[in-house]
Write a structure and sequence with these properties.
Elements lengths: L6 E4 L7 E5 L30 H12 L3 E4 L21 E2 L2 E2 L8 H25 L8 E8 L2 E2 L2 E2 L4 E4 L7 H9 L6 E3 L11 H7 L5 E7 L6 H19 L20
Parallel strand pairs: 2-3, 2-6, 6-11, 9-10
Antiparallel strand pairs: 1-3, 4-5, 7-8, 9-11
Helix pairs in contact: 1-5, 3-5
Pfam families: FGase
Protein name: N-formylglutamate amidohydrolase
Length: 263
Amino acid sequence: MQDFAPFEIIDGDYDRGMVLLADHAMNRLPPAYGSLGLPEAAFGRHIAYDIGIEGLTRALASRLGVPAVLGCFSRLLIDPNRGEDDPTLIMKISDGAIIPGNHPITQEEWDRRLDTYHRPYHRAVEETIARAQTPQRAPLVLSLHSFTPFWKNFARPWHAAVLWDTDHRAVLPLLEALRAPGDLVIGDNEPYDGALKGDTMYRHCMMTGRPHALLEVRQDLIADEDGIAAWAERLAPIFNALNANPILHEYKIFPSRTGPYPA
């Protein structure tokens, strides 16, 4: 399992003060886990990773010249976008798919996955963000995810969405820029609520006062190279404009809707 890298860091210009994150970039499993008892087809579904996000993150990191951190393990193994005490950290069932390799699971195996995959990923995220900051200048952190076009027979109308807790600084101008052309339906905390205790944005941004936003793109729009290129072209100037705003490089801690921060 030591031969399996839990993260990949894409180097960039740290002086630009922007970092991209892709928690669910890949659908890979360490060889020792086989397929967790799932059919191969399961790893092409959203339950295994965020379809299109690896390609979109790489394209944006290249266009913007900024660093990025990619999660290299499937969320079916352990979810990097969950807190360590979240009951959905290691899923037993996901969108109707039972995951035999996750149930039953011993405390020893639970701790092994935390130590070997989840914690190293978050150390890489924190170290990468720290390289892009100074005591006087906070980095702008943008997290990229994707969501399914349908959920339980409901067609999701949003082309993309911005998820957030209470720190509105990057969120409001991002929503405005995405909506400005008038050709997209943009969700605001849809189809999910962005306030999640212990997740990546909570841990690395809400608790530290770093400006941030989480952008979700609908998976069918970035499922191939043409879609990825089109969205990279759309998003790159928006991200550049956000990064040029001095307010988005100030440290300010906002309260979380999930409750008080841990001491």
